[in-house]
Every structure is written in C-alpha cells, then in structure tokens.
Description:
Elements: E1 10-15, H1 17-20, H2 35-46, E2 53-58, H3 64-74, E3 82-86, H4 89-98, H5 104-121, E4 125-129, H6 144-161, E5 164-166, H7 168-175, H8 193-208
Helix pairs in contact: 2-8, 3-5, 5-6
Amino acid sequence: MSHPFQQGETVLFIGDSITDCGRDYSNKWSLGSGYALLTAAEIGKQYPELNMKFLNRGISGNRITDLERRWEEDCIAHQPDWVSIYIGINDTWRYYDQGELTTTEDFYRTYRDLIVQTKEKTNAKLVLIEPFVLPVPAGQREWRADLDPKIHAIRELAREFKTYYIPLDGLFASKSTQLDPAFWAEDGVHPTAAGHALISKAWLEAVQS
C-alpha cells in the first residue's frame, strides 16, 4: 500500500473529547488513549524511518466555535504538515441537552473559515472526519435531524477543498447492524476501544488509498 507521508512531518489531530481522549494537557506530546494514539502508533510502526511527530489538540466539550477561538494557537502556530479535524457532535448535543443551537449555516461558515485559514497559513494536508451518533439510548435517533445537515456540510467542504475524508457516521451505522451499537460507543457518542480502533483504521485507509 502506498503512503503520502514525508520525512519528519507533523500530524496534528484536533477536535473534541473523542480526539482528546484523556490526554495530559501538561505534556505537549500526549496523545491520549484513543484513535490519535492508535494512528500515530501504526504510522510509527509502518514507517519508523520517517521519524514523524504527532500532536493531539482535542479538548473535551468543544464545538466549532471553540475551535475557531483557538485555531491560531492550537493549529496554525504549530505549522503542521497534516491537520485532522474531528468536530460537530457537541454542536448537536448541546442543542438537545441545553437548547443551545448551532445552525448548519453557522457551522458550515465557521468550519470553512478554519479550512481557508489553514490553507492560507500552512502547507498542511487536511483530513476531515465526520461525526457520528448511534441510538444508545434509542432517543438519540432524534439527534439525526440536527446532525445530518452538519455531516452533509462537512462532505461539501471535503468536496470543495478536495481533502481526505473519513465517513464515520456510515461506518459506525454499518458496523452496528452486526452488533449492539453500544459495543462501538457505549453512550452512542464516545467510542469504546474497539470504536477508536475502527476510526484509526478508517483514517489510515483513507490517506493511504
């Protein structure tokens, strides 16, 4: 399988709690215990001669506006060669649990601005990861009304900017036809260890295809 990586490149993962996954904020190299760690480990194993670096800048609870506020410090300032963005589920979740609405238009506009900034200020290749939700509990099915348009917005951005794209929502839905959805995400949102492995595998397959 071919790969797009170059000697000494830096990969930056940024997003919410799914990316954060318990990282140590006092250690700039901490990758947490989720898909960011698994992906970095696999790349390091496959291509040790490249001596690549990996940064995790996920923060639990973040929404797209949170990324906007910290984009310069937590993304642009690092001048990464790869930027992997995984955001969106909290923009939906906060609507259903706290009534705080992020419209699809605002979500799209803010996300697009982050991409434009990244392209103008870095030479990074972009990986966009769509959020997912599973019906655990079953009432979370209603979240689809808010989440689906946001997923489509991210897909539109991936097409416009010709980024790498990870279609997680469809992947997790497909896997959940064979097993209880809670096997992949106990609360329908936060992946289990198996769920994080699924994300990492999809990430690697997308960029190495």
